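Query structure, 176 tokens:
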């Protein structure tokens, strides 16, 4: 997860590795599928690389950039029918990519104490929601759960070592 960007989707799983994307609908007759990934995760999809789909290894045959992202074909899935069988499946890899400055894995944020910029406890981060404009932290406070856009202006401090985030408490942001 990167502030003012989309969710970094490489979340931990109990399967063959880490989730880096999801397969979309088939395109054409040669087994290509839509591939929904963060641009930073394209490093996992070089020709010949192995990824896991439905707990089975799949070797990348081709990756092409299209107007709305990427399309991928795997060895052994060279028909539309074969592609249809894995449509909608998550794509997993064994290792994670290195994070950039200011980028976080969503599961590392869950459980952090949420504090005001004055240091007062206002709740705990219980989830992360991926958004088109920006991602949001879901915070369980004293009252109902609330969401805070995960941008520098509203979440100026993320301290994974000390296990807290600071949230700017604007009127109406954390109150119902």
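Result returned for the query:
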């Amino acid at each position: 997860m990167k502030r003012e960007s989309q969710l970094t989707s490489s979340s931990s799983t109990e399967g063959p590795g880490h989730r880096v994307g999801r397969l979309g609908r088939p395109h054409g007759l040669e087994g290509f599928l839509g591939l929904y990934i963060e641009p930073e995760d394209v490093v996992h999809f070089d020709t010949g690389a192995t990824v896991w789909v439905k707990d089975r290894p799949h070797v990348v045959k081709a990756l092409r950039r299209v107007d709305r992202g990427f399309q991928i074909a795997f060895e052994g899935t060279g028909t539309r029918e074969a592609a249809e069988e894995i449509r909608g499946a998550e794509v997993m890899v064994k290792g994670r990519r290195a994070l950039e400055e200011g980028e976080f894995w969503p599961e590392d944020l869950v459980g952090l104490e949420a504090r005001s910029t004055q240091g007062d406890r206002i709740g705990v981060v219980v989830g992360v929601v991926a958004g088109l404009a920006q991602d949001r932290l879901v915070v369980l406070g004293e009252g109902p759960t609330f969401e805070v856009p995960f941008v520098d202006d509203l979440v100026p401090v993320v301290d994974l070592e000390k296990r807290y985030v600071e949230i700017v408490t604007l009127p109406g942001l954390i109150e119902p």
